[in-house]
Write a structure and sequence with these properties.
Layout lengths: L7 H12 L8 H14 L24
Helix pairs in contact: 1-2
């Protein structure tokens, strides 16, 4: 890994910082950034399965209830 490449730990820390933004739910740019950070931190993870710490992955069967 090159010296200037971010580590997975840094990528996750940066994603957590963005997730903590008060307007995260409506901030599309921050959401895209978080998605990109998690893809970079976990490159082998299939698309759509990476979640932020403390979040539950979305069910492929939809919501229950």
């Amino acid at each position: 890994m090159a010296q200037d490449e971010p580590t997975a730990a840094w990528l996750v820390i940066e994603a957590r910082r963005l997730l903590a933004l008060p307007d995260y739910a409506t901030n599309a740019a921050a959401q895209r950034q978080v998605t990109g950070l998690f893809k970079a931190a976990y490159p082998g993870e299939p698309a759509g399965t990476a979640t932020a710490p403390g979040q539950v992955p979305a069910s492929p069967f939809g919501q229950r209830g």
